Amino acid sequence: MKVLITGATGTIGSEIFRHCLAHPDITSVVAITRRSLPEAVSSHPKLTSVVMQDFKIWPREMLQSHSDAAGMIWALGGSEGNATVNLEFPLAFMTAMADVLESEHRAAEVQIGKTMRQKFRFIYLSGAFVERDQNKKLFLERDPPNKDFCVFPAARKLKGVTETESLAFAQEHAHVWQALIVRPGGVFPKDSIATSMLSWVLGENWVIGREELAAFMTDLCVNGAEERDKTMFENAGMLYKGRALLLQGTANAVAVNT
């Protein structure tokens, strides 16, 4: 199985990237980045590295060469109110990739006995505080907006637009495309003091370890949602599933080594 990923050099994306490389069912990981990956991982036998300078332009030839991928884990973005990164980049990818997949789908339809591939899974890393309602007033948001003051509220709304557009896009291209939105709360190192304290104070709905989140998102790309029509995934459910996957991985490793 082949998996595509963006944001592999980021704090969360790098952990997802590591889990993808380690997953036994994933045979190929295509990391699409704007700069070269560290030498420590660049020689990994599962890795194909693609360096792109402009994420608004996706070469058709490149996408065709990876159209056999099970999905894309989109971990590129940030808390800043940058419409180019948080909205234009993912929409450009969706449009370009779906065009390639639909062309292949049409070609497959006319071939007798041709097996149709499963839907391409677009897994979008969003956040628990993301707001889809563009008219809603958010905390610390001024009217008129001032980007130097309300950066975080701006990003929350931008990602809300991306969520809405991603789900609408999946409906329009339902024969080849599936959108899965991941909405974690605060993401911290698994065994850090901050994680333990915040988990105790805020509860399971608002805090998750990077390893649990990465394990969940990797499994989601490989196996899809346990509930067939589910498209949104909140913190608590991801936390429990991620923990179970990590324990299962540890148990499997022990079994192999005994």
UniProtKB/TrEMBL annotation:
Domain annotation NAD-dependent epimerase/dehydratase: ranges: 3-105
Gene3D superfamilies xref list: NAD(P)-binding Rossmann-like Domain
Protein name from the UniProt record: NAD-dependent epimerase/dehydratase domain-containing protein
Principal subcellular localization: membrane
Extent of the signal sequence: none
Pfam families: Epimerase (PF01370)
Subcellular location field: Membrane
Gene source species: Pyricularia grisea (Crabgrass-specific blast fungus)
